[in-house]
């Protein structure tokens, strides 16, 4: 509600600013208080026990059924086991208040908590301590990556997810697909140090994601196709794969995405756009205020991404992408320079702008910038033309002025690995240096 007011206020005051990114109001239509006043359905009244043994699956499904036409499903503080997954459908004006901790004990694939075809929905913790502990290490230690995603939202409209913690998913942590008008904020996600353990994946319309921390070794907060009107702010990739657009294939349709205030440390990249062949477009995207430390890649457009099998098509067309105010240091700029633009020869990038970009290497004393088939302004991009061109690489051996950027101070120094239990973190007080979260953290 505070948000709705904020956005409505912002729309009234600064229409161009808000409409340029989001297309309208995000978040639930009715307040938590309204829902609570209507009906409360505690899982304890439907057979749940905070004994870390009794399966919370069936009680949660029953509580949802009782409250899904208007009310709040309450999971009080305490430790619960989940051995069977829940598919929660057709809610309208319903919230799930997760104040306890749910520990995965089941081994099925799919989604532990799957919310679909619902409107005016909220998943939150009133204390900021609600968590799902996926115990993925028990599976990963066997060398296996099978198992469930923790949370999936599908065809959910007018919703929010906030102040909850997701830990050590067997597979992915949180995805939103085919959703509209959503807000996700004040979250910590902490997974194993492996690929396939994505933080947040979005392919949706009109979504605001802000104040989120992700630790893992795959997607931090990543936009997939189709998506439009996505605003992603105050993101802390604290030892992750890093944020990305992709991977992108046939008929890609991504537009009007804005990443702002993204702090990335010890990750694969600060931002990657990844594809190999394919078709369609990515257009009107801004990547603003990025700080990096100790990452392998920094700005990394790779339209011949070797981890993806080539798909049919001359390439996804990237147009009107702006990278501005990037600072910090990369791990080794001589082997992996801070600017790597590899556009598809079959669909050269156009209107790419790289400005106010100053990064320097942590190892050695030189770094390179490399561009292929990319047009626009800044560094190695060609200013005019439209034909494909081979990679051009320039090496610099002096640090650009103004590259130095602050650290968050509590950066993770070693990974959590994949074989031992990963502790449940607390949600951090800030996700980008000097910037307070938009909404006060719950329980503070
Ligand atoms: C979502 O909320 C908007 C008002 O902001 C409303 O117009 C729309 O109908 C709602 N969506 C659904 C599917 O009910
Ligand atoms: C480029 O994208 C930005 C950000 O979405 C947008 O404001 C601007 O209008 C776009 N420019 C063109 C020429 O479409
Ligand atoms: C980064 O991750 C490490 C390990 O989880 C944690 O100790 C540190 O507090 C995190 N930083 C913040 C700001 O949360």
Automatic annotation (TrEMBL):
Q: Which InterPro entries match?
A: Glyco_hydro_28 (IPR000743), Pectin_lyas_fold (IPR012334), Pectin_lyase_fold/virulence (IPR011050)
Q: Which GO terms describe its biological process?
A: carbohydrate metabolic process; cell wall organization
Subcellular location per the Swiss-Prot or TrEMBL entry? Secreted
According to its UniProt record, which protein family does this protein belong to?
Belongs to the glycosyl hydrolase 28 family.
A single GO molecular-function term is: rhamnogalacturonan alpha-L-rhamnopyranosyl-(1->4)-alpha-D-galactopyranosyluronide lyase activity
Q: What is this protein called?
A: RGase A
Which positions carry the signal peptide feature in this UniProt record?
A: 1-20
Q: Which domain of life is it from?
A: Eukaryota
Pfam families given in the database record: Glyco_hydro_28 (PF00295)
Give the main localization category: secreted
Keywords, sorted A to Z: Cell wall biogenesis/degradation, Disulfide bond, Glycoprotein, Glycosidase, Hydrolase, Secreted, Signal
Q: Which GO terms describe its cellular component?
A: extracellular region
């Amino acid at each position: 509600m505070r948000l709705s007011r904020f956005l409505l206020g912002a729309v009234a005051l600064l229409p161009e600013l808000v409409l340029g990114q989001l297309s309208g109001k995000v978040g639930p239509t009715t307040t938590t208080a309204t829902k609570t006043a209507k009906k409360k359905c505690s899982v304890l009244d439907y057979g749940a026990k905070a004994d870390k043994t009794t399966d919370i699956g069936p009680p949660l499904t029953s509580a949802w059924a009782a409250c899904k036409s208007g009310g709040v499903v309450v999971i009080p503080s305490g430790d619960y086991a989940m051995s069977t997954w829940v598919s929660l459908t057709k809610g309208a004006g319903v919230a799930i208040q997760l104040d306890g901790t749910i520990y995965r004990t089941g081994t099925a694939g799919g989604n532990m908590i799957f919310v679909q075809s619902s409107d005016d929905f909220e998943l939150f913790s009133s204390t900021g301590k609600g968590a799902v502990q996926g115990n993925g290490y028990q599976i990963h230690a066997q060398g296996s990556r099978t198992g469930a995603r923790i949370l999936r939202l599908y065809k959910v409209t007018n919703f929010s997810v906030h102040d909850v913690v997701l830990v050590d998913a067997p597979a992915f942590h949180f995805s939103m697909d085919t959703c509209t008008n959503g807000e996700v904020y004040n979250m910590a996600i902490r997974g194993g140090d492996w690929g396939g353990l994505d933080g947040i994946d979005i392919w949706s319309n009109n979504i605001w994601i802000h104040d989120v921390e992700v630790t893992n070794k795959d997607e931090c907060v990543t936009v997939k196709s189709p998506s439009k009107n996505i605003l992603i702010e105050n993101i802390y990739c604290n030892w992750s794969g890093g944020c990305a657009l992709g991977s992108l294939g046939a008929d890609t349709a991504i537009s009007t995405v804005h990443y702002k205030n993204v702090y990335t440390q010890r990750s694969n990249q600060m931002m990657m756009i990844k594809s190999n062949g394919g078709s369609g477009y990515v257009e009107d995207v801004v990547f603003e205020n990025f700080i990096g430390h100790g990452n392998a890649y920094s700005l990394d457009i790779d339209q011949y991404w070797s981890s993806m099998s080539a798909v049919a098509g001359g390439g996804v067309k990237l147009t009107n992408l702006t990278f501005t105010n990037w600072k910090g240091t990369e791990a080794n700029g001589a082997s992996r320079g801070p600017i790597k633009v590899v556009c598809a020869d079959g669909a050269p990038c156009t209107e790419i702008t790289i400005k106010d970009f100053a990064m320097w290497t942590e190892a050695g004393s030189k770094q390179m910038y490399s561009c292929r088939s990319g047009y626009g302004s800044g560094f190695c991009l060609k200013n005019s033309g439209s034909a494909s061109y081979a990679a051009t690489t320039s090496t610099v051996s002096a640090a650009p002025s103004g590259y130095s950027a602050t650290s968050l101070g509590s950066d993770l120094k070693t990974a959590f690995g994949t074989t031992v239990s990963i502790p449940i973190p607390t949600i951090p007080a800030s996700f980008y240096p000097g910037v307070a979260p938009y909404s006060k953290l719950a329980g503070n």
